[in-house]
Amino acid sequence: MKLSRSFSVLLLLSALVFLAGASAAQTLNFASTQFRPIEEQQFFREQVLAPFVAETGIQVNMIAEEYAPFFSRLQAEARTGRFETDVFGTLHGDFPALLAEGIPMELPDPQSLPGRTFIEELVKLGQVDGQQIYVPWTQATYLMAANKKALDYLPEGADVGALTYAELLEWAKNLYEATGSAKLGLPAGPQGLFGRMLHGYLYPAFTGHQVQKFDSPDAVSMWSYLKELWDYVHPSSAIYENMADPLLLEEVWVAWDHTARLGPAIREFPDNFVLFPSPAGPYGRAFITVINGLGIPKGVQDFDLAWRLIDHLTHPETQVIVLEGTGFFPTTVEAASYVPQGANKLLADAVAAQASAPDALVSLLPVGLGARDGEYVPTFKDAFEAIVLRGQDIETVLARQGARLRELFEDTGADYPQP
Question: Which CATH class is domain 12-140+289-339?
Answer without folding.
Answer: alpha beta
